[in-house]
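Sequence in, structure out. Go.
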Amino acid sequence: MLNLTHLRTLAEVLRLGSFTAAGNRLGYTASAVSQQMSALERDTGMRLFVRSARSVQPTQAALAMGRHALKLLRDVEGLLAAGAAAHEPGNRELRVGVFPSAATFVLAGFLESEAWTGSGAQMVISIGEPSAVVPGLRAGGELDAALVYQVGESGLVLPQGVTRQWLADDAFRVVVPAAAGHEEGQRLDLGELGAMPWIIHQRGSSDATVVDAVLANAGIHPRIVASSDDFNATLRLVAAGHGAAMVPHLAMTARPPGVVAVQVPELQLSRKLMALWSEDAPADLVERLVEGWGRMLSVS
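Output:
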């Protein structure tokens, strides 16, 4: 069995370039560092350093072992941290990624619910679009679970070992400025809608591509006056009379005065809301999270 202390010392010797510097960093004498490296050579049966009167040079074996030692030491630290968290439930945490409107209208309410407060755990939150959140679910990544959306058939490439569960469909609504004289739920024809200025997603995003396709299929080629990936900002621009937009139902929770939703049967679009979690996430906390999200989205 290899001594983890000796591996940590090896990593510091390679990083700092000398026994003396590594000893100063770790609180050992240079002689003690030399003895540890000699013991590591005996344990591995490999020559790790070429010693001379004036210098000590690492061999290729030492360099290769040092690279793997760093990963091993990080894994050991993670193992100990996980054990400590399980031993003291009050210190447990769940690392969650969500997109902005879900953070406002789903996650905030869930944090106040008995389903979560009863867990005694802490939630560490990262807010970002799915393309930024999903990579964090890879094995050994910075996230345990995520709430994401998928618009149309645009794909989400999931890391290996990630489970997905559909939670709800979030239908887009067509919204226009109330100042234009329209009423809530009014049927609006495509000609009138097409004559309005539009606020859409940033060009190049998957959402913008899908919305463009829906509008084009209906014969609408919008005059774009603003591009925004923040639905709160989009709704405020609509309220100010700047243009029409398509906004998901979830974001309509914070609709400001001056925005009305109209009926346009020719424009049908929804996004799938999904929970994702990695295979090494704490199962009991993930179960609470996914069930809580599902309940909140079913009544939103």
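Check: The chain has a mean pLDDT of 87. The first strand starts at residue 49 and ends at 51.
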